Amino acid sequence: MSLIPSFFGGRRTNVFDPVSLDIWDPFEGFFASPLANVPSSVRDTAQFVSSRIDWKETPEAHVFTADLPGLKKEEVKVEVEEGRILQISGERSKEQEEKNDKWHRVERSSGKFLRRFRLPENANLDEVKAAMENGVLTVKVPKVEEKKPEVKCIEISG
Questions:
Q1: How far apart are CA 67 and CA 31, in angstroms?
Q2: Which of 13, 33, 135, 137 lies in disulfide reach of 69, CB 3.0 to 4.6 Å?
Q3: 76-81/111-118 β-pairing
């Protein structure tokens, strides 16, 4: 075992695994964490609740991209509420435990998530489209076409 810090992202696994890239940290848990007294089930749900969503603006639309691995499109809801609010929500169910099952590790999170975004004035709320492929949700909110002011040339007399 080594006391050298991990250069591979701080992942943790079995210290007896000979092919593991992870390095044992003797100080892990030594310093108090704000979540130290929170039950692990709540911490796991909190990880899923704060689903990360990217929002980019292109010349044509606002595009939201969310990684939702393991979810089906039926488990995700995309809504536009009053006041130009885009709401993305869903739920990942916890796997049913059988009476004779023995769990060695539970790392996948479960629970509900909800994210809300206030859309800008130039969003066309009637043309919002959503698609889900391979656990990635993409929501496209087209922009309203800006009317360019008419320029009228005035002839100068004189």
A1: 31
A2: 135
A3: unpaired
